[in-house]
Every structure is written in C-alpha cells, then in structure tokens.
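protien #1 (seq + structre)
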Amino acid sequence: MPSAVVSSQGAFSALRFGRFAVMGLVAVLILIAGVWASWGSAQHVILTKGRESGTVKVTRCGADACSGPYAPISAGSRPRGSVVIEKNAAVREGQTYTVVVKPGSDDVVRSGPAGVLYAWVPLGGALLLASVVVAGGLRRTRAAWVMAGSGIALLTAAFVTI
C-alpha cells in the first residue's frame, strides 16, 4: 500500500508542474505578443536617430486613416504634400501633430510622449491579460498585481496624454 501513495503523490507533482509550465508559457506568449504588437509603431517613435520628423496638419479623415501636408522639422527631411496617419481617438481633423515618418513610405506615427505611450498600449493590454493567467494559473498573486498595476498605469498614462 505505501507504493500506491508514493505514485499518487508523484502523479500529483507531475500534474502541478505541468500546470505551472503550461500557464507560464501562456503568460510569456501573451507578453511576447504584446511587445510584438507594440514594436511596429514604437520602434519609429523611440529610435528616432536618422529618421525624418516633422508636423502634419490633418485635413482629411477616412474610415481607417487621416492625411494632411507634412512640414519637416529635422535636417534632411523633405516636405510632402500628403502623408497618412492612422485614425484613432487621438487624431482629429484640423489639428497639427508632431510625427515621425516611417522609412520608405509616406506613413507617419505620432512622436513625443503621447506617441510613445500610445505605441505601447498593446503591451498594457497584454500585461492586464497575462496578470489574470499569472494569478489564476500560476497562483502568483503578488506578481499578478504588479503586472496588472503596470498595465493599468500604462493605459491610464496613454489615455491622459492623448
């Protein structure tokens, strides 16, 4: 009979380790997806050395994008008759925004504190989602609270600056 108890405890330990490994992997994948989604815009806003920067006055907005003339600020940047900026809650027709031009295109992303924080919004959402996985699947409530607090702080800061 003692051998049955030992094997039962071994199976329980293996299941616990399996749950820990799978939930850890899910949390890491969620965070990687958040960074990946954010990096598409964030790289242009954060790594500005050698990139064209200027202002755009939004004159037209469609369903997905807005456009307007681009006036350069940085040396080596050339004026453009029309550039395209993603339409979101932070872009309004008639307003002027500081932007960075994506290399090899006429697409621009907002720069400055508002642009940096807005670029990292997907990571803020991923932090909130991963905190639920960490709390429920890994039973690490302190780490989950830190992750959730970081996500809420990032989303709130982005909302306030925009």
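ok now protien #2
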Amino acid sequence: MIRSATPADIPVIHTLIRELAAYERAPEEARATEAQLHEALFGERPAAYAHIAEDDTSGEPVGFALWFLNFSTWRGTHGVYLEDLFVRPSARGAGHGKALLAELARLCVERGYQRLEWSVLDWNEPAIGFYRSLGAVPQDEWTVYRLTDQALADLGKA
C-alpha cells in the first residue's frame, strides 16, 4: 500500500533516510533532523512531499519516496524531482518501489506535470536495471554540479 506521509511518519522517514545513506555508503552525510524534516514536509510552506510504502500484510513502513516540484522552462510546466526512493532490502522485489514510482507518475499525469526525474548512483546496477525496466531513460549528457559547505558560503559572500 502506498499513502501520503503524515506528521506521525517523521521518525520512520528519518530512519529510512539514514538507512538509505548507509546503503549509498555515505551515512555521515545524512544530517537532517526530525525537526527539519517536519518543517520541510509539514511546515507553513512545505518544500517537499513524501509517500510511504507499507507492507500489505503487517502494515509496517518498508519504504518511502521524498519529492518536490521542479519546473521545466522548455515544457512550461512543473515536474516532480524524486529526491529519495528507498525500500528496505528485506522488502525488495515485492513491488513497493514500482508502486511508489507509479503513484508519483499518477500524480504527474493527474496534475499535468510532464516530467518525473531523479538521480541514481552510477554503481547502483540493481536500481539502474529496475529504472530501465520501467522505461526510464538516463540523461547521460548532463552532469550534476553541487555547491555545499564552504564553497557555498564563499560564493554567497561574493
């Protein structure tokens, strides 16, 4: 079952983010607090949204998708950028990841958004194969750039 996250889900979302960071070999990078997540998802002006995948039998959360709106100047419409998609290893292969992506695709179609995009680590072959099986196409000609920490602060002072 896929459902929209509620404020009561913040602890499990926080835990799943930390599990994802460990899987992606960067646990020290997952610094978001539960308070930050609550503000981002349920504050006065939400900046992101989340869906929870629950085990059909137990009802336990087994995965999540955290996303936000982007905008395509070429298409003239919003799209969805999927920041995180994670299903616990013990629950993989049961359709939870596909169901999360299908829900986001459904939202895109319903709202007239024309893109659903995300990034995947180049070493994550299981995820790459899964995404390709759904018809997703890699955007190999694009390279993501990022400013963080001191470089971001330095540029912000310029």
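The chain is about 35% helix and 20% strand.
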